[in-house]
Amino acid sequence: MKIAVIGSGYVGLVTGTCLAENGNEVLCVDIDNNKVEQMKAGIVPIYEPHLDVLFERNIEAGRLSFTTDLNEGLDFGEVIFLALPTPENGDGSADLKYVLSVAEEIGKYITSYKVIVDKSTVPVGTAERVRATIAKACKTEFDVVSNPEFLREGFAVDDFLKPERIVIGSSSARATEVMQRLYQPFVRSGNPILIMDEKSAELTKYASNSFLATKITFMNEIANYCEKVGADVDKVRIGMGTDSRIGKRFLFPGIGYGGSCFPKDVKALHKSGKDINYDFKILDAVVQVNDKQKTILYPKISSFFDDDLKGKTIAIWGLAFKPETDDIREAPALYMIDKFLEAGAHVKAFDPEAMENVKQKYGDQIALGKDMYDVTKGADALLICTEWSIFRTPDYKRLKSNLRNPIIFDGRNLYPVLELAKEGIHYISIGRQNV
Ligand code: UDX
């Protein structure tokens, strides 16, 4: 099939590349000329495991190409994916200006039947608005379908190529047939392509992300409570997770969820409820608890230094909002860095992928180290913010001799408490006993 993907951000690039990998011809459109030139030269503008290999292979095979010309994309594709940003407005709602302005262009320009696919995360009712916007000036038949993505950063290629489910919101048999043909090769294992109305498809995305964010937040509250009553959240987590109705995944407590999806989507669903006088109380609580969770370790660190962090050096391992990404959007590490700088402390940080992004944000305000041990030399404490695999089995002896005080504050519960006690390292984690 010939496909145009409008918007070469994270979702657009993964979608375009993976559709090309399955034999489709894909033209990716983006208004950013620099990015398009970069991509034409075979450079992937984001870090995502395995994407580079697929990208190169499909460009070479002539199945994946790039342009800044929207009309070229509209001429090219039988199916037009909209993978445009839907940033958060000041009031928490999703801003649809990019989606609707492209819809307007589509309406003015297309002259033959196209399936327009909403891939962006958009509020309930957006497919209807996109359809109405296109219809204003359109002289040909077209269909709009909703096809939300469920890609995890760090696993996006795998999630796209082997999805647990594909959700398609469509009210047109013709468009449904096109979408089924497009996605059939990805679900040969038997996973379902779920066809539903557009509104239900749009809500499935928000409800899934909000549920997962709620699950994590619930566990974070249980962890905080464990600390108060002397229980161990790791034991509680396993005790709960082995009940198949609860499930083992997304029960890991920590210093809060971040990223480009959960924070934005929970707020957007809450706001769209408010707009129709429905008060999603649970989502309001999730946002508040998560904001607090991001700073939960700070008072403990501060009190370890008698509430005087001035001149102290804090080493940080992990800056990305989660492992296997360079994305620092809403990353808990940023909240901690801001707090330390406010208190007059020095920060020395290391992350396997996210340091360039952090450098752009903080410039010379913080120091970045060449490896994980480098930043601990002479530091007064170590704080772990992201659970990269490389941090899981450190050389404790080396750490102990590098640090001025043998203390680790762990926002991701990486180490067995007793092991650290044996090594003579003070260890403060989340929802477990301190040693
Ligand atoms: C998420 C959804 O999983 C994906 O389906 C959707 O399309 C986009 O949003 P992503 O933001 O890439 O994907 O990350 P994910 O792996 O889901 O983690 C989200 C956040 O939750 C991270 O900050 C992570 O550290 C946190 N988390 C996750 C926990 O704190 N505990 C857990 O047990 C799991």
TrEMBL record:
Binding-site list for NAD(+): D30, K35, T86, T121, E153, K264, R329
What keywords sit in the KW lines? NAD, Oxidoreductase
Q: What Pfam families does this protein map onto?
A: UDPG_MGDP_dh (PF00984), UDPG_MGDP_dh_C (PF03720), UDPG_MGDP_dh_N (PF03721)
The protein's matches in InterPro entries, at most eight in alphabetical order, are given as:
6-PGluconate_DH-like_C_sf, NAD(P)-bd_dom_sf, UDP-Glc/GDP-Man, UDP-Glc/GDP-Man_DH_C, UDP-Glc/GDP-Man_DH_C_sf, UDP-Glc/GDP-Man_DH_dimer, UDP-Glc/GDP-Man_DH_N, UDPglc_DH_bac
Q: Where is the active site?
A: C261
Sequence similarity: Belongs to the UDP-glucose/GDP-mannose dehydrogenase family.
Protein name in the entry? UDP-glucose 6-dehydrogenase
Q: Which organism is it from?
A: Psychroflexus aurantiacus
Q: What is the lineage of its organism?
A: Bacteria, Pseudomonadati, Bacteroidota, Flavobacteriia, Flavobacteriales
